[in-house]
Amino acid sequence: MKYAFVARERALFPVRLLCRVLAVSVSGFYDYLRRQSAPRRDSDAMLRADLHAIHAVSRRTYGRPRLVRALRARAHVVGHKRVARLMREEALQGKVKGGFKPRTTDSQHRRQVAQNLLDRQFAVDSPVPAWVGDITYIPTREGWLYLAVVLSLQTRQVLGYSLSERMPDDLVQQAFLNAWTASPVGEGVLFHSDRGSQYASGDFRAMIAALGFVPSMSRKGNCWDNAVAESFFATLKNEEVTGAYASKAEAHNAIASYIHGFYNPTRLHSALGYVSPNDYASRLKHAA
Fold it and tell me: What residue stretches are annotated with the Integrase catalytic domain (predicted)?
């Protein structure tokens, strides 16, 4: 405090006089000035570097909650307020997912539909093992593509998907077969979808029955009954499909990269306690 006073008043009084009155040494005062002018070490330098690295790996999608979890996984002792401050200072922002928008499903058909056996039991620790499936559109400058996915309710992994220029019955069949090939399961697992004609087709119902699955369908016009699949599509369109792709080939490559290169192996999922779907599935396997 005394040296700071000398520094403030030295324009009006001699330094030696000020030091003598305050009983401090002149050499000590000049040491103080050198310390003040020396560049200060940023105690957050390593934290800032990791913050930027994690944000980049997340495709610049992570906000504060996921960044906090990821930094703690790297042994940083941080809280939400500190990370929020550093994000402001480093001009980092995450992408905020809006609520998914209900879409119209072609349920105006005479095909057989199943009861809603899943009944919104969406928790990852639900005693009801289940897969869920749905279809969405992907815009490109060469026309639309249609994406069918199959997700595990217990791990939130995208187990399989299929992209097509049209939306025929075999679009969902191929997605399901891709999932089954990658992750075969025992009998009795629910397969839940909306009431779309593709899922109600006789070929699809026969296929999943032959593999031991039990069909479950949302109630008519109730998109919330398939909220896990709808939420995945909302995430996909917030983080990857943010506009029309230049070509259909580019869309195919981008979707594959997002699912296999980021969503399944890396992206921290809030429903899984902020671990990735692949890591969560590995934990379940080792705990079994």
Answer: 123-285
